[in-house]
Specification:
Layout: E1 2-3, E2 6-7, E3 11-14, E4 19-20, E5 25-26, E6 30-33, E7 39-40, E8 45-46, E9 50-53, H1 63-95, H2 97-109, H3 111-134, H4 139-169, H5 173-188, H6 193-222
Parallel strand pairs: 1-4, 2-5, 3-6, 4-7, 5-8, 6-9
Amino acid sequence: MIVSNKLAAQLDAAVGSLRVTSNAEIAGNVNYYSRREAEVEPGARIGGKLVHNPPPRLPQPSPERIFIFFTGLGLFILLTGFTSTLILGLLSLHYLPKYHQAAADILRSRPWVSLGLGFVAAIVIPVVCAILFSIVLTIPIAVILAAAFGILLFWARIFVISRLGEAIMGPKRGWAFLLGLVLYYVIAFIPIVGWIFVVLVILSGLGAELLARKNFYLEARARELL
């Protein structure tokens, strides 16, 4: 900030730097907030005092507050994910029992095929979305495909969780899914191992889901339902 005119009152300013030229005439005090000292040229007339104030410091949160905040945020995300997955899983078991069981059976009988197909789909679908986004006329299709892919990724875990619970408890659908969900979250929170586990769960579930959809589509076509 440069002051080179006459002021009939005091000057209050918060600036990065302040320069008072020789032509400046200030009737009152110069009260300024800055990290640097003001530059006052010879001949400048200041009727009051030149007061330098350091800039106010922003309040720094304590480590305890930071820990509490992130702990609360983590618990909220955990509770939200657990509850939403539980609700979606129970809805899938109740309203889509055959489709749900078909995907779980594919995971039991063809686990490596499911994992491989899920891995390929996780690469191909984003690439296709990127190509569609690069073409103006196909952006709406890209948005729909990207949204559907996100839903598939979230939904894919449900079948693996269900299969995990059934492998331990047997075909007690609701309780087996709850057990599998608890085990899923326990393993997922193990550093490194848990992250790899989550990725494998999503890819395997995605592959099984795509195979189940294909089988249902072919069966519907064979029965002339489509």
